[in-house]
Amino acid sequence: MAMKTLIEAISEAMDEEMARDERVFITGEDVGPRGGVFRATMGLIDKYGAGRVVDSPLAELSIIAIGIGAAMAGLRPICEIQFADFIHPAMNQIINEAAKMYYRSDGQWPVPMVIRAPYGGGIGGGLYHSQSLEAIFAHVPGLKIVVPSNPYDAKGLLKSAVRDPNPVMFFETKKGYRLIKGEVPEDGDYTVPIGPVNVLREGDDLTVYAYGIMAYYTWQAAEQVADEDGIECEVVDIRTLLPLDREGILESFKKTGKALIVYEDNLTMGYGAEIAAVLSDDGFEYMDGPIKRLAGPDVPGVPFSHPIQEAFMPNPKKIAAAIRDLAGY
Amino acid sequence: MAMKTLIEAISEAMDEEMARDERVFITGEDVGPRGGVFRATMGLIDKYGAGRVVDSPLAELSIIAIGIGAAMAGLRPICEIQFADFIHPAMNQIINEAAKMYYRSDGQWPVPMVIRAPYGGGIGGGLYHSQSLEAIFAHVPGLKIVVPSNPYDAKGLLKSAVRDPNPVMFFETKKGYRLIKGEVPEDGDYTVPIGPVNVLREGDDLTVYAYGIMAYYTWQAAEQVADEDGIECEVVDIRTLLPLDREGILESFKKTGKALIVYEDNLTMGYGAEIAAVLSDDGFEYMDGPIKRLAGPDVPGVPFSHPIQEAFMPNPKKIAAAIRDLAGY
Amino acid sequence: MTEFVTVDTRVDGALSGERPSDNLTEEQLLDMYWSMLISRRVDERAWILHRQGRIAFHISGIGHEACQVAAAYAINRGVDYIHPYYRDLALVLALGVTPAQFMVSLFGKEGEYSSGGRQMPSHFSAKWLNLLSMSSPVATQVPQAAGLAFAIKYKIEQGMQDPDDESLPRLALTSLGEGSTSQGEWHEGLNWAGVHSLPFVCLVQNNIYAISVPMEQQMAVKNVADRAPAYGMHGVIVDGNDVLACYDVMVDAAQRAYNLDGATLIEAKTYRPVPHSSDDDDRSYREREEVEAWKKKDPILKYQNALLERGILTDELLEEYNARAKETVDEAMRIAEETPWPDPAPHLHPNSVYAPNGLDWKG
Amino acid sequence: MTEFVTVDTRVDGALSGERPSDNLTEEQLLDMYWSMLISRRVDERAWILHRQGRIAFHISGIGHEACQVAAAYAINRGVDYIHPYYRDLALVLALGVTPAQFMVSLFGKEGEYSSGGRQMPSHFSAKWLNLLSMSSPVATQVPQAAGLAFAIKYKIEQGMQDPDDESLPRLALTSLGEGSTSQGEWHEGLNWAGVHSLPFVCLVQNNIYAISVPMEQQMAVKNVADRAPAYGMHGVIVDGNDVLACYDVMVDAAQRAYNLDGATLIEAKTYRPVPHSSDDDDRSYREREEVEAWKKKDPILKYQNALLERGILTDELLEEYNARAKETVDEAMRIAEETPWPDPAPHLHPNSVYAPNGLDWKG
Ligand SMILES: Cc1ncc(C[n+]2csc(CCOP(=O)(O)OP(=O)(O)O)c2C)c(N)n1
Ligand SMILES: Cc1ncc(C[n+]2csc(CCOP(=O)(O)OP(=O)(O)O)c2C)c(N)n1
Ligand SMILES: [Mg+2]
Ligand SMILES: [Mg+2]
Fold first, then answer.
1. What is the mean pLDDT of chain C?
2. What's the CATH fold of domain B198-327?
3. Catalytic: which of D40, D123, D227, D276?
4. Beta bridge partners of residue B289, listed in sequence order
5. How many A×C Cβ pairs under 8 Å?
6. C-alpha D33: how far from its chain's center?
7. Where would I find the H helices in chain B?
8. Do C238 and C175 touch, CB atoms closer than 8 A?
């Protein structure tokens, strides 16, 4: 095992999948010589050529549509959207097309493609370089949605995504790209299955659900409240948001009876709403307190100005406070 | 008062607002001589001219963007999207632009516009003429979202929408256009405020939350179970989905302690998730049973074939059954 | 970078040099006639079924048969990719979808060929013919077809496909109406086709209306093909009611694609003599005289007369064809009626939503 | 329907007839020089601040000053609508945004002029100048600007506005980079402008790169303006580093708009001699020689030399201007530093999200 950053793990996954399968190609803005604005595809054009690492025109819907067409023709596109905030022009292609193709053709036309997009705030990106988009897409049957929280999962899940015969949206915490480090097997082709949630930390007092960088922050907060207050949280990293592992979600709740859901996206209709809905129905008999959500406020975006941004974003401190509140219920 | 269909009420609202305010204009596909494919704008071009009832090119993002630009310049656009299913090309303009404009300019540029779109299934429309889109937009702070269930509300809410200084999405149940009839004041300029929920029927046993045609069906089901089983449901018509009237939602729940949420959209991350999340947090201490959702299954669309469509759609019978189940909890 | 291409105005019939259609055998010429005729008859029956209240919806290809059948015959049928639009009934029948399959789809009966009855009629799909699956939002197929064409070029360039292997798709053809070219999807799709010089053909069936909206409220050009230069594409205008003229330009475009010599935008000028769909009433937006005038230019009539004149078609043959068409349609109807309604359960099951893990899709 | 417009290639300087710029007074000529200079100096200071780690981000207008300042001076400044893009620093300063306001925005300090500090720097907005609010997704402003132009024409046609009233906006100008023309938003916006012959001007600042992606991977035409005919728009190509040439074509376009005579697409050929933004490193995608060659064509240098040659600018004046520029920038910096950080609360309050009920917005 070697220590890798999140983005290194992601780059490695793409590199290995391209080496493994000639059908895999990458397209997106600046993915070629520039190596992507976050450098996730750095060096791949030198290794695999401009035919397989294709700088697209500045046109997101076409990036996705080219991917859909190529996937139906048997290739394995990895489409990079430079920032998740710019995925909206492609929503028609993703929601009405990629997600519905297999179903609408009664299985005739699968769409095996991956859509990678850096998401999330806290990097001074303002309204349009900070968005979380998972909630909207989590309402779209036919998509799979993955949001890894650590390098091991990121690499293993991305490889699974490339091999999955369905459209997989792969959201990457850009704030965590270089911040989050972790062990990744030195070599050897491992995958992490798309589907099951992952318990990052066991505990009996309450369950905190999160994904992406919020799972990372939650784990930090959980360690802190364990140290300082003796509160033992179970931290469930949802990882695959769609299709949701309902049993996995419920299992922990049956033990603790208390749930906090953390996400940085706007509160209302954010992904935590679905977790709360599942728990308050299937988990009703285990409920031992209100289902709490800690999320971004309902304003149209993450503000740029530093103090406002900080006030917007959940962080380990706010999470710890929410844990203490709920534990004390 | 006169009996009107839902669509008549909607047409009247537009007619009266155009007569009242020269800034109001309509654009969309086939809204001119054709009067809209559902005939909502029938006759308006004769009355107000082709300058105010403007057949757009077949291009939804431009319909919305023209509306945004015109609204910022002081007009009052009513943009018609022919079927909600075709709004996706405009999601960038709605989510990233219309919704965020006022906030991103610190109040410099309001966007007073209305986006009308017929939604919903049960009319043999298959995957692309049956969609419910409210859940996705309900996650977008800056938008207001209205879904009327009856002619009186439809007319009054649409007039409020035209006068609202914000972008208002107005979803119209196309199945209910001619099916749902109700009393509408003969003349006299009334409005219904955007915001508060409306209790359609009082009851102590449990609360059913719904909107649009599902509120209409729910009311029918509630009458039936009252007659047949003596179960008294409170039926809360949410009407304004964003911003949500949290107090209005909670008020009924505090009385009944049991909630069923009905929507025809896909279950997962549908609008009912947010209601469940609100109730299981702020309403926890009143909970007297699991929060139940009755919704469309998680398949990518409403199928065309009649028996499959029927199996997909919630209807009064299924709602009554869900009410009985919950009442018996 | 492809050079601009000036627009070729074959609509005036000013064809010079050898015409590919000159090489069509009598049998082929008659096959094409049959394809147009059977499509028309199936289509007419659908209107009748709708009027009888037996089906809920029909959207028609009447009037568009010439350019569609020409397209099917000019390419490698059943092998090249076709990403069609809802008016392409003649195209998909010429490709190999059967009248019975289409009839079943009108009802949404069990085992419906394109979607298992999940989609509305005329939302074609037939993997076995490399006919792609249609949605309703217009123009979405255009950039996807560029993606199919991209894959063809990719496979050739990466040594995964022999460029001359006729058992594999060598072009992607997509079609749509003139109104749909207002969509950003069209712009972005054609832009890719031009930038990457893809084996791509875009067939715009210009019937001068998008439901009720006429050309001049749709675009500020006289011809859709006038936009080809904006994408470095070859642009052609053709009389869309003249099947052989359409065949000529389609063959030309197909050859260009097979040679990886650039993408082509074909504008077929035609007309829809019937309402937009069974939900439409076209009297609100166009004069009856206009409709009647166009009916005189009917593509089937036109071709029929040409073939009669050339002695390829005879009155007996014509009678035989009409009888065969009626039989075929009756038989298709019988099959559709006898087909049972589907059991909803599998169509609402999660397994219907996702392709199974481990499926190694090869296209 | 507007007729096609052949592209005018003023890039070669082949101007004939009277040039609007011939009528500019010396004062106006010097004002324009000052506008270019102050923008450059503010911009350079922003780069320094970033290098010093005092600000987090800067996106630059360096190299683009000529076409931007020309645009500001050719229209009815502060009255006509401008829907800009992030590189338009010189344009917005020439319009009336102050260097201090811009400096405050670099930090996101309290009361920031465009968004209260909610947006990243260079996301301009100034209602009092009819400068519209920018987002980051490229090209979204284009169809919105068509909407602004639509409103102008609407008000005139409905008798709500006197067409000659210069106190009201009579055109909408929007600008963007060449890469952004690949977006469907651009297509749909220009299509409206053409169909409705709107008082609309689209200024494409073609610096031949979209971040790292060069023209030839972006479009299959040599000039963006080659696409104007596809929209029934007037198309013009101009040397974007020649402020007076830009002024000439801008005046022409503005007059056309004021006369409701049609929409114009202007392509200003220019270059970005600096990285795309402070996050970029342009060495991975272009040769230093190319950058150096373009630096020789710097628009300020070019204009300065022309003015010196004509005796309008003198060495003393130049020195004075430079001193004044330094002072202005220093003062702007001082103000920015002294401005406090904002209190987050009002920016996260629901009241910040929705315009209040009852507001009767008049634009
Ligand atoms: C994105 C989208 N918007 C609206 C519609 C509704 N609609 C269906 S067909 C049509 C007109 C299409 O006109 P055109 O492209 O000219 O094709 P034609 O039907 O004339 O062959 C419209 C508006 C749609 N299907 N998709
Ligand atoms: C929809 C969208 N996609 C991607 C981006 C990221 N991005 C910002 S600027 C830019 C390049 C723009 O190039 P061009 O239009 O040529 O303008 P220039 O920066 O060269 O002036 C890109 C890709 C964006 N802002 N919006
Ligand atoms: Mg048409
Ligand atoms: Mg550029």
1. 95
2. Rossmann fold (3.40.50)
3. D276
4. none
5. 156
6. 16
7. 6-20, 44-48, 60-72, 91, 99-104, 134-137, 151-163, 176-179, 213-229, 246-256, 271-282, 306-312, 316-327
8. no
What six digits make up the tokens of A127?
């309204």
* Digitized pLDDT (tens) for each residue of chain B, 329 residues in all: 899 999 999 999 999 999 999 999 999 999 999 999 999 999 999 999 999 999 999 999 999 999 999 999 999 999 999 999 999 999 999 999 999 999 999 999 999 999 999 999 999 999 999 999 999 999 999 999 999 999 999 999 999 999 999 999 999 999 999 999 999 998 779 999 999 999 999 999 999 999 999 999 999 999 999 999 999 999 999 999 999 999 999 999 999 999 999 999 999 999 999 999 999 999 999 999 999 999 999 999 999 999 999 999 999 999 999 999 999 99
Cα B241 to Cα A269, B158, B246, distances in angstroms: 11, 14, 10
Beta bridge partners of C170: none
Q: Where does A257-315 have alpha helices with state H? A: 271-282, 306-312
Location of structure tokens 């022999």: C162
**Single-letter amino acid code for the residue at A262:** V
Q: Mind listing the pLDDT tens digit for each residue in C173-192? A: 999 999 999 999 999 999 99
Name the token pair of C343: 């059991």
**For residue B248, with 0-12 CB atoms within 10 Å meaning exposed, 13-18 middle and 19 or more buried, which class applies?**
middle
The correct CATH number of A2-184 out of 3.40.50.720, 3.40.50.300, 3.20.20.70, 3.40.50.970 is: 3.40.50.970
Distant-in-sequence, close-in-space partners of B329: CB < 8 Å, separation ≥ 6: B258, B289, B290
Domain boundaries, chain A: 2-184, 198-327
Instruction: Tell me the per-residue pLDDT of D206-247, one tens digit each, with 9 for 90 and over.
Output: 999 999 999 999 999 999 999 999 999 999 999 999 999 999
Counting Cβ atoms within 10 Å, is residue D343 exposed (0-12), middle (13-18) or buried (19+)? Answer: exposed
ipTM value, please give it. Answer: 0.97
D211–A34 C-beta distance less than 8 A:
yes
**Tens digits of residue pLDDT in D303-330:** 999 999 999 999 999 999 999 999 999 9
B326 three-state secondary structure: helix
Please tell me if residue B166 touches chain D, with a CB cutoff of 8 Å.
yes
- B80: CB partners within 8 A, 6+ apart: B26, B27, B28, B29, B31, B36, B40, B41, B63, B116, B117
Considering only the beta carbons, identify the residue of C197, C216, C230 that sits closest to D230.
C230
Neighbour count for residue D230 (Cβ, 10 Å): 26
* 0.95 surpassed by pTM: yes
Chain B 50-79, residues with CB within 8 Å of chain C CB atoms = 55-62
Query: Which chain B residues are closer than 8 Å to D83 by Cβ?
Result: 69
Cα separation of B148 and B141, whole Å? 20
Are B273 and A269 a contacting pair at CB < 8 A?
yes
Q: Would A2-184 and A198-327 be classified into the same CATH topology?
A: yes
